[in-house]
Amino acid sequence: MKPVGTLLLYSANGLYCPAGDFSIDPSRKCPVALISHAHGDHALPGHGLVYATRPTWNLMKSRFKEKLTADFREVEFGRPFFVGGISVTYFPAGHILGSAQILMVHEGQRYLYTGDFKVQHDPTCEPYHSVPCDHLITETTFAHPDFSHPDPLDELRELCEYDHQLVIGAYAVGKAQRITRLLHEMAPHRRVMVHPIISDYHKVYEDAGVNLGDWWPYSRKEFLQDPANILIVPPSVFSRFDRHDRALKVFATGWKRSYYRCDRVLSISDHADWNDLIKVIADCGAKTIFTLHGDGTSLKSHYQLEGPHVELLHV
Ligand SMILES: [Zn+2]
Ligand SMILES: [Zn+2]
């Protein structure tokens, strides 16, 4: 176990706070879990008590169904509460609907866990909120100067110039909803169809008041009828759509290459790129940075001579 300041401990199971006896995004079942957002590497079923925002909980319910047996405490953004005597406040992380950064205050020190976050504009989730802190525990998914995410509208505009069907592979929670909305904004004449695994999450977004624009449930027959049609499918079934021979197959990711076989990559990310991360670090004023998820070595060398002290937690 590695200490994270004097408040938290880091292990392979995630972050644990001994003083408050709670875990943050734990990868194992535990009695009290603070969940930042509904993605599978952060939110699992089987905990005793879960603190999360309402949209996060609803997305978890949609994913885990009857496996989700935990008691739920709804957290509102910006409203402090206590867990085991530790003051905790959730702030929007701008990553997906309901995603939160978690601020903990202990002995006058402010610890901010970013969860996954992005600063880039996204009309399908609450916008990222800048939070001052002393210790920042941040994800480093794209923490390398080579990563600079383009404007997703430009990326989609270029794709839509192709005059045949498009099959877009995208993560079912967050990415698929963002793409649906962006397509509605920039190509309203093209019909967007959605695979059933994704449409359940679309409904959670719409129930929360998010406008995704028009979309239709997938039907193979209808999809093939019009070359202007676009289909969004989750990664788990993306490879099955090879049979749509004439359709252009693209995979939505922030990485330069797709893990899944495709004609090309649609560059769109729900994580901060290098410049955004550097700006967030400067704005929050943290003296210490702890890195999680991804590789923190570029960040460490960036601040070697001056700036905050960087510690890599996961090596
Ligand atoms: Zn995530
Ligand atoms: Zn993640």
Our estimate of the beta-strand percent is 25-35%
Q: Helicity, in percent?
A: 10-25%
Report the count of strand segments: 20
The dominant shape is globular
Which ligands appear in the coordinates?
zinc ion
Main beta sheet: 7 strands, mixed
- Alpha-carbon distance between the two ends: 12 Å
Overall number of structural domains: 2
CATH topology of the largest domain: Metallo-beta-lactamase, Chain A
Number of helices: 8
Low-confidence stretches: none
What's the pLDDT, averaged over the residues? 95
CATH superfamily of the largest domain: Ribonuclease Z/Hydroxyacylglutathione hydrolase-like
Looking across the biggest beta sheet, what order are the strands in? Answer: 1-2-3-4-5-6-7
Order of helices and strands: EEEEEEHEEEEEEHEHEHEHEHEEHEHE
* Cα-based radius of gyration, to the nearest Å: 20 Å
The CATH architecture of the largest domain comes to 4-Layer Sandwich
Structural class: alpha/beta
CATH class of the largest domain: Alpha Beta
In short:
The protein is an alpha/beta fold.
Q: How would you sum up this structure, described in words?
A:
- It is a single chain.
- The N and C termini lie close together (12 Å).
- 23% of the residues lie in helices and 28% in strands.
- The protein has helices at 54-64, 152-160, 175-186, 196-207, 220-225, 235-238, 274-284, 297-302; strands at residues 2-4, 8-11, 14-17, 22-24, 32-34, 49-52, 71-74, 81-83, 86-92, 100-106, 109-113, 135-140, 166-169, 192-194, 216-217, 230-233, 248-253, 264-267, 288-294, 309-312.
- The mean pLDDT is 95.
- A seven-stranded mixed β-sheet has the order 1-2-3-4-5-6-7. Strands 8-9-10-11-12-19-20 form a seven-stranded mixed β-sheet. Strands 15-14-16-13-17-18 form a six-stranded parallel β-sheet.
- It has two domains: 2-145 and 271-312, Metallo-beta-lactamase, Chain A, CATH 3.60.15.10; 152-267, Rossmann fold, CATH 3.40.50.10890.
- The protein has 315 residues and is an alpha/beta fold.
- It has eight helices and 20 strands.
- α1 (54-64) packs antiparallel against α4.
- The structure holds zinc ion (2 copies).
- One zinc ion is lined by residues 39, 41-42, 116, 293.
